[in-house]
Design goal:
- The chain is α/β, with parallel strands linked by helices.
- It is built from 13 helices and seven strands.
- A seven-stranded parallel β-sheet has the order 1-2-3-4-5-6-7, with helices on both faces.
- It is globular, with a radius of gyration of 20 Å.
- The N and C termini lie close together (11 Å).
């Protein structure tokens, strides 16, 4: 069996990556991970021009440094936007006045320019995905970021506080935000991306239960998924486990995007178990995304062993190795390259190819 350091690795061809995305047998297993390029991704881009610059220049440098098989573009600074007609989203009377943004809104125009500039510096052979969040995520962050202290760690709590007291106001706001996210999806299409990475997550508060998820959140999420599928061949469902967030993965099984990514250890489903749960869809992930996990802190041998274990478990059809979520920004690039080389060379080292 060949050793990892005997194998020369580089980004896979578009054809090889497409085999995985199309749920076909793979000659080499794709790999991709990503991290933020700004100290605080929640800082509003229009307040700091370095955010846009970092999103573009550091994206190009990162993709080149780790030779990504495919790219999930980072949109630091555009996670939330000014809610049209709302002076204070935490005030239900103000929030009830929300209106949809226009198609020439600066939040959309700047993202079109951002994605265009990012794509311009990336090899055209690579699949490129833009990022959008669910309406629930957008609103909960907006609620937290417009409060004193601007602490996103309380986002779930403040969302639950407002929804339990004013469910109709919050639901109406979510519906309007959803229409604006549809505009955001179409901006990505106009800018030339190959697909959408759709990030969603349950509200992490016991007051928000499955009834809210089924009656409100899921309906909004499925509306966005329909738009993604109507505009792109590929979409990635990211059931976000950032900072230890727990999700009931079975609640998401009818979210009909062709590729699924989740926090395997937190949600309790391995790649192979998730592939079965999601009716044999393509699965992406397997590696933890914190400083305690092997990709960040492990040796080359440990990282290779973990990647090998993931592929041995999940197989080499419709399997893409990646991480649970966004990596720490200081994850060593050598570690990322080691994981990529391990995924690419797995079958060769097993004597299969």
């Amino acid at each position: 069996m060949a050793k990892l350091d005997e194998v020369i690795s580089m980004a896979l061809t578009r054809k090889a990556v497409l085999a995985a995305f199309n749920d076909e047998s793979e000659e080499q297993v794709p790999f991709s991970v990503w991290h933020h390029f700004n100290p605080n991704a929640h800082t509003v881009a229009k307040l700091d021009p370095t955010i846009f610059k970092n999103d573009v220049e550091k994206e190009h440098a990162y993709v080149k440094a780790v030779d990504s098989d495919f790219v999930k573009l980072m949109d630091d600074g555009y996670f939330t936007y000014d809610l049209q007609g709302v002076s204070d989203p935490n005030d239900p009377e103000s929030l009830s006045k929300i209106e949809p943004i226009s198609s020439d809104n600066e939040w959309l125009q700047e993202q079109y320019q951002l994605v265009t500039d990012q794509i311009a510096g990336i090899d055209s052979d690579r699949l490129v995905f833009t990022n959008v969040f669910s309406a629930v995520t957008v609103l909960k962050w907006e609620l937290a970021l417009t409060r004193p202290g601007k602490d996103t760690s309380v986002a779930n709590q403040v969302f639950a506080d407002l929804y339990t007291k004013h469910p109709e106001v919050v639901t109406n706001a979510l519906k309007v935000i959803n229409q604006d996210i549809i505009k955001q999806i179409k901006v990505g299409k106009q800018a030339g991306v190959d697909g959408v990475f759709f990030s969603t997550q349950e509200i992490q508060d016991d007051r928000i239960d499955q009834q809210f998820f089924n009656d409100v959140q899921k309906q909004l999420d499925l509306e966005l998924i329909d738009v993604i599928n109507a505009n792109f061949e590929f979409g990635i469902l990211h059931v976000c486990g950032h900072n230890g967030a727990e999700n009931h993965l079975p609640w998401f099984t009818d979210y009909d995007l062709p590729v699924v990514n989740w926090a395997t250890d937190i949600d309790g489903y391995s790649l192979s178990a998730g592939k079965e749960l999601f009716h044999n869809k393509v699965v992406l992930g397997g590696l933890g995304s914190t400083a305690k996990d092997v990709l960040y802190s492990g040796s080359q041998e440990q990282i290779q062993a973990k990647v090998d274990q993931l592929i041995a478990d999940a197989g080499t059809t419709g399997v893409i190795i990646g991480a649970d979520c966004t990596l720490p920004a200081d994850t060593p690039e050598d570690h990322i390259r080691w994981a990529s080389e391990a995924a690419h060379s797995y079958l060769k080292r097993q004597g299969v190819k």
